[in-house]
Every structure is written in structure tokens, then in C-alpha cells.
């Protein structure tokens, strides 16, 4: 646990919450040289009540852009994890270097991210939580649960669905109330009877008992007979729920953790209120069907990190932060909609089962499979950056291009979270050198077809301006029209000099 001294009490950015979203954002800001700190209520890294169990293709690509994907791949199990309403979607033929998902519990995902953040020397104030924030013209006061406070130029709430940060600034959280609730836990079992391992569907809902690893605890998920209250669930409640489904509680004892989740779907009305921003579950909550929650949060962080760094450093005006809401709010809304649709298809009703069978047949066809597979894996995200080349606003394919240093993967050019202007043809007479202090200019060649998931082959551009999050901000096609405008819009006026990204 970090001590809180007077010198440590001021930072450029304070993040509430050291879950995957908060850790990823801290890493992004630290790579940009921004003074960032995290406040985390857990006194240790032990994870309580995790329900996320893997990474989707796009998230693996994002981690690979920072050079850390191998850390996760070494511990997880590569698998085809994309699915819609538990209908498997094979993406192995997608144009990606990672056309698969990764089965890996959130416990390990957080541990690996925390190790990366430690290497970047980000301080984490553990054993306390943000209880309120109050902003003024120059910064934000951050009240902590131990009675102390921090001061920051910006604050990002990554503090979950009950976010104190969101509530403090009065951002509405509209959506749909829960209709179903579930208990999830890791427990020991003492029963002599052989448990009914695997997934079980019945008139109540879906339940599962996962076989333990190395004689460890059993992971249990059980649907409750009625929507549970908002309090912390107990071992007794879990036992009663097991008896209702399996006829026995299997002698459960010694829980590592027990949590409750529902099919509630809510989204923050705004992802920004002045100097306060929201990401991850603080911005959007929904049923974990499809495994999209953690992945959406991590990608929120990667979209926000470089923008916030540029504003803190004075490279870009404060208005750049408005693009965070403009780009990520529609993504979150889409996730909420498809999560609700999936849960509807899984309701224990014969008519809905017939509908699910029809959807399953539809998704066995190639075109629907590719469209839904791209959506669920995050590979089809397109930010609205205007009309033009199909690549505009989409992820840059991880091509192997030929540079003066030899064959180079595009992902390796983004290790330091710095934008890249990749020249794949003649850029004419336009001079991009005024931005070289913040944009890497690189001449390269590529021979081959360009292909995007769910779209197919696209015309080869002569140049691409790649943002630090890996999305394309400008595409050259024989002419350089609009490049100066794109460079200025995303990476600041060339005459604007950075300032020190220090504390408030």
C-alpha cells in the first residue's frame, strides 16, 4: 500500500479503481509520460467476485500494440470464444493475427496488467477508495475513504457500476432494471456425491459447476428464483440456491468470494463532465453474456488514454476529450443492446427457444457468422470520422510492411502509444515534418491485398495516419488532401508546444 504524503497528494490524473480498465488506462498515461496515480479499495491484489473469463480478438490486438499480449497468451488458453446467445461463432478465418479469443480468468488478467503498471512505476493507493470528487476551473479534489484527499487536473472513474465518481458529478445512469439475478462464487465442496459438472439449463435459467483445477475451489454459478437484493450475498443464500436447482448444496464451505450479478443494463448519459471522465463499468453495465464487459472497458481506456495525455501535456485543446464520448458511447450502447438480445434468446420459454434455434441456423451461414463474429470480437468497430476510404475510423490491419530496417509489423510501431504516419506510396509535396515531435513518419512498402473483418478486400491506400489506439484517422488515396487537417485535429497545432504533464 502506498503511503500518502503531501508530495504524493497531487497528480496530473487520478484513476479511481485498479480493475482491468483502470490499470490499462494508467499504463497508457504512463507510456505518454503523464503523472498518474490509482486509488483502489482493495488492500491487496486479491480479486473478489470476478466474473470475466477471457479476452476477445480485438483486445488481444490492442495488448499486442503495447508489446504485452504474449504475457497473457502464455497463461491463457487460446480458443474460439466468440459467440452470440451461446451460439458459437468461429472467427479463425478472420484477417487478424489473433483470430481467436483467450480463456483466462480476470484474476490473472488483473495480475498481469498490474505487473506491467508496476514496471511503469505508477503509484497505487491501496486500501482506500474515492468517496467523492469536486472540480473547479483548474482541477479536481478527490476525497478518500480514510479522510485524506488528492488533487488532480483530471479524474477518471473506473470504479464500477456503483461508481462514486459518476454519482459525485451527477451523471445520469439510465437503462433497464434487472429481471434475473445470479450468484457466482468460488467455494470448497465437502459432499461425497459427484457434482453435476458443466452447464445446466432448466425452467429457472442457466447454472454451472466448473471442475476445479489442481484440487482447488469449485466455481459455481446459479440462477436465483427471484431477483436478489443489492446487499452482499452470503454462503447461506448460495447454499439455498443450489438446493433449489440441484437438490443439494454439495456441502459448500470456505468461500473465496461470492458475488451477485444481474441482467440490468445501464449506460452513463455522458462519459465526461468537465474534468471528470468515466470508463469501464462506471460507464456501462450489462449481463456478462458474450464476455464483452472487460473487453469494452479495456478498449475504453485505450481510446481515452492518448487523448487525455495530449490534453494534459498541452498538445491538444481540452475539446479533444469530447471525442471520447462521441466514439465510445455508441460502442457501449451497442454492447448493451446485443447483451439484452442474447439474454432474451436464452430465456426458458419454448417460443423463445424456437426463435433461438432459428437464429442459430442463421448464424451457421457465412455472412451472418462473419458479421456477428466481428461484432462480438470487437473487430468491426468503426468510429465516425467522416466519409472516405473503408479503412477510415477502423482498426489498422497488422500488416508486415517493408521499411528501411527490414520487415516490420505495424503493431510494433505502436509500442510507445505514439501516432504513426505510414507512407506506403508517394506523399507528393506535402511536408508533415512540423508534427515530428509527436507523430512518427515512416516510409514503407506493402505488397498484398488489404482485408477487413466483415467487409472483405478494400483498396490499398497510399498512406495511413494511425492513432495511438490503432485506429486510422486519415487515409491517402493518390492525393494528400486533408492530411494537415487530420494531423491538427488529432495531434494538435504544429506550432503548439507541449508543456510539463505534471500535477495540478
UniProtKB/TrEMBL annotation:
Gene Ontology MF annotations = FAD binding; oxidoreductase activity, acting on paired donors, with incorporation or reduction of molecular oxygen, NAD(P)H as one donor, and incorporation of one atom of oxygen
Q: Which UniProt keywords apply?
A: FAD, Flavoprotein
**InterPro entries in the cross-refs:** FAD-bd, FAD/NAD-bd_sf, RIFMO-like, Ubi_Hdrlase_CS
FAD-binding domain: which residues? 12-339
One matching Pfam family is: FAD_binding_3
Top-level taxon of origin: Bacteria
Is Repeat one of the keywords UniProt gives this record? no
Q: Which cofactor does it need?
A: FAD
Q: Which NCBIfam families match?
A: PRK06834.1 (NF005303)
Q: What is this protein called?
A: 2-polyprenyl-6-methoxyphenol hydroxylase and related FAD-dependent oxidoreductases
Amino acid at each position: 500500500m502506498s503511503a500518502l504524503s503531501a508530495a504524493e497528494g497531487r497528480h496530473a490524473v487520478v484513476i479511481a479503481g485498479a480493475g482491468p480498465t483502470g490499470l490499462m488506462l494508467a499504463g497508457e498515461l504512463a507510456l505518454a509520460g503523464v503523472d498518474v496515480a490509482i486509488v483502489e479499495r482493495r488492500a491487496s491484489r486479491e480479486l473478489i467476485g470476478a466474473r470475466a473469463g477471457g479476452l476477445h480478438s480485438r483486445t488481444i490486438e490492442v495488448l499486442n500494440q503495447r508489446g504485452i499480449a504474449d504475457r497473457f497468451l502464455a497463461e491463457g488458453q487460446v480458443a474460439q470464444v466468440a459467440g452470440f446467445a451461446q451460439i458459437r461463432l468461429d472467427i479463425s478465418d478472420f484477417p487478424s493475427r489473433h483470430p481467436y479469443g483467450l480463456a483466462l480468468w480476470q484474476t490473472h488478467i488483473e495480475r498481469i496488467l498490474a505487473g506491467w503498471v508496476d514496471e511503469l512505476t505508477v503509484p497505487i493507493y491501496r486500501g482506500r477508495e474515492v468517496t467523492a470528487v469536486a472540480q473547479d476551473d483548474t482541477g479536481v479534489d478527490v476525497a478518500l475513504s480514510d479522510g485524506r484527499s488528492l488533487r488532480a487536473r483530471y479524474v477518471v472513474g473506473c470504479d464500477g457500476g456503483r461508481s462514486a465518481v459518476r454519482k459525485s458529478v451527477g451523471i445520469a445512469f439510465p437503462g433497464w432494471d434487472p429481471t434475473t439475478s445470479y450468484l457466482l462464487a468460488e467455494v470448497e465442496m465437502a459432499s461425497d456425491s459427484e457434482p453435476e459438472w458443466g452447464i445446466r439449463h432448466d425452467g429457472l435459467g442457466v447454472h454451472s459447476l466448473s471442475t476445479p483445477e489442481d484440487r482447488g475451489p469449485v466455481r459455481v454459478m446459479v440462477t436465483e428464483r427471484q431477483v436478489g437484493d443489492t446487499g452482499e450475498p452470503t454462503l447461506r443464500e448460495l447454499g439455498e440456491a443450489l438446493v433449489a436447482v440441484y437438490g443439494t448444496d454439495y456441502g459448500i464451505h470456505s468461500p473465496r468470494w461470492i458475488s451477485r450479478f444481474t441482467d440490468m443494463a445501464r449506460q452513463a448519459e455522458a462519459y465526461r463532465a468537465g474534468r471528470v471522465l468515466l470508463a469501464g463499468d462506471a460507464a456501462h453495465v450489462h449481463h456478462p453474456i458474450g464476455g464483452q464487459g472487460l473487453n469494452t472497458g479495456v478498449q475504453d481506456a485505450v481510446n481515452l488514454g492518448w487523448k487525455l495525455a495530449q490534453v494534459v501535456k498541452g498538445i491538444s485543446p481540452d475539446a479533444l476529450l469530447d471525442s471520447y464520448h462521441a466514439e465510445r458511447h455508441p460502442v457501449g450502447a451497442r454492447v448493451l443492446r446485443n447483451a439484452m438480445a442474447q439474454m432474451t434468446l436464452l430465456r426458458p420459454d419454448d417460443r423463445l427457444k424456437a426463435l433461438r434455434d432459428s437464429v442459430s441456423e442463421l448464424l451457421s451461414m457465412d455472412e451472418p457468422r462473419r458479421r456477428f463474429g466481428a461484432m462480438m470480437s470487437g473487430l468491426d468497430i468503426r468510429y465516425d470520422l467522416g466519409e472516405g476510404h473503408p479503412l477510415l475510423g477502423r482498426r489498422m490491419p497488422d500488416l508486415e510492411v517493408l521499411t528501411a530496417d527490414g520487415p516490420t509489423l505495424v503493431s510494433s510501431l505502436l509500442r510507445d502509444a505514439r501516432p504513426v504516419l505510414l507512407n506506403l506510396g508517394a506523399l507528393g509535396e506535402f511536408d508533415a515534418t512540423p508534427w515530428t515531435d509527436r507523430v512518427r513518419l515512416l516510409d514503407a512498402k506493402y505488397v498484398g491485398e488489404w482485408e477487413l473483418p466483415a467487409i472483405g478486400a478494400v483498396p490499398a491506400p497510399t498512406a495511413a495516419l494511425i492513432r495511438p489506439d490503432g485506429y486510422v484517422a486519415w487515409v491517402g488515396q493518390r492525393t494528400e488532401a486533408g492530411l494537415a487537417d487530420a494531423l491538427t485535429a488529432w495531434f494538435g497545432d504544429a506550432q503548439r508546444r507541449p508543456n510539463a504533464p505534471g500535477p495540478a
